[in-house]
Amino acid sequence: MIPGRSPAVPAALAALLAGALCLTLESVAPWLARFPANWTLPATDWAGTFLEWLLLGLKPAARWFSWLLGYPMLWANAALGQTPWPLMIGTATAIGWYLGGLPMAALGLGGLGFVLLSGYWVESMNTLALVAVSVPLALAVGGVIGVAANEFPRIKSSVQAALDVMQTVPTFAYLTPLLLLFGFGPVVGMIASAIYAAPPMARNVILGLERVDPEVREAAVMSGGTRIQQLLLVEIPSAARQIMVGVNQCLMAALSMVIIAAVIGGFNDIGWEVLLTMRKAQFGLALMAGLVIVVFAIVIDRMSAALAHERRRGDPRVAYGIVALSVLVVLVFQARLPDPSTLTFLDPAAERVDRALGEFTANNGEALNQFRNGAMFYVLLPLRIGLDEAALPFTWGFQWTATMSAGLFAAAAVAGACLALSGRAVSGLLLVIGSGIIETGIANLPWPFVLVATFSLAWVASGRRLAILCVALLATVLVSGLWERALLSLYLSGAAVFACAVVGGAIGLLCAVAPSIWRVVRLVCDMLQTIPLFVFLIPVLMFFQIGEFSAFLAICAYAIVPMIRYTRHGLVMTPPELLEAAVASGATPWQIMRDVRAPYAAPTVLLGLNQTILYAFAMLVIAALIGTTGLGQSIYLALGSADVGLGVSAGAAMAILALICDRLVQAFAEGRRTALGL
Questions:
Q1: What is the CA radius of gyration of the chain?
Q2: Which of 73, 260, 368, 607 is the most exposed place for a label (fewest CB within 10 A)?
Q3: Contact, 121 vs 292, CB < 8 A?
């Protein structure tokens, strides 16, 4: 390609000119800086009116369905609640033995033993009852959707788009309309859990059926079976491994959503205990309840994941023996079995955690406050509102002036010109654009600049079609009156994604060159990926209290894992022949990493970035519980006031932001794969 003729150059130049015009004309045309309120449409009111009318018509059927689902809820709750705890622990141990031998049996025994000693046995069984009812419903719905998409290719693209939307809509946004439809109580959490957990199952069913060997399909056709027989007897069994991966993901999604649904209250489950103790600042008990959730998540994840792998099972006779032994213990000691609610052996540990935390914050509170304030005043606040407003005498020691802004732009222009003269015109233009964003702040960016920049980025990534789609989606947010809140959400999630990309990328690089470090980091990543979103709030609250910085840390902790995994995976998957050619040419290890491994890993790293962005948006709404602003806060407030219009509109706006980021990153990843001939 001829230098200077790359589409990235005119695209970056267009974004730069749009930003410069907006800043120059802001004083004479203030509507360029902030979209006029009288230009917006009452989309929230329209959505609220329409949905309330629609939900009013559906409410009788929904309430009947809720009443119907109440019975399996009661049965599951009674069965799990009334089953003696030795039998529950013995059953989990036996299942673990059968699925994975002694290590898995020890996991089941130790996990449920910890739950018993924590004093949260009853609450945990209530949570497990919700999962036990919601998961089969999600599996059935997801399975039917996946099979239908496979059988009718015309609807597959529509189904995929619907699944994308379902997985990008924030979790809290499900609860507001469901609360109006199904009423208050645990059934709402169960239904929300089933809706949230169905897409992973549907995706894996579609993927599994797509990967069935064509020869297997042909053999099924030649055998003379009907289409249903081919599907049930040949194709689904052939796709069983991938489908079991979907079962694992469905279980984890259901558990995560059940915990989130505790926000609506009305049920004595473990999620409600976490929320209640957090509100009371009883961080020791909150941490204990959070650890119970983590233990449940790890046990469910490991055991369900074992179903997806073909491995030698444990001797079933031993499993039956474990169950028989637990039954014998119940029969012999039934009258003397202690009430699990009284087994609070770990409460002293929780109290010690509270005391230790109090002493730590008393001794180090000043240092923690300085660290938090430094991050806020010198990093997050300038990103949000710009140096123009963030640099103040009581924070930075001086007042930012127009002269300083001019100096910043001049320095950026000189540096950009130097980069352009050295053949890196795009880098030079991006440097100037970045200086303007830092000076103005993400939350104060002019809306024409955001639209033009998004159009330009999408054009470079995939062409006109994606560019038009992205701008059209952004325009709906703009005219809905949620633009300022959307920019606040974009600022916080963007800051977290950038931090995850830098730190996670560095850790992934380190793990790629040092396998011993990866063995340790992998365990941490496995644990972080099994922790429900809710639990990430506890440790940051323990040390930094409520605030935007705590929300930022919680988002980073949840979203960093994909970046680590994908970076490491991309770097270690470089074809051996490429590495051998680089070594033969005399390249140093650093040159091999920079010129061979990194370019080849770029598509995989971009997919990791894509997952990090989606994780950040998912956590952004949960972080609204501890003091964020933007769309997440709007969704949370809408849930509290049962404002279905605001909840759905804000949820749709956040889904649009996530969807645009998803499409952009996927387009760049596809471009890199095409360039590498993959």
A1: 27
A2: 368
A3: no
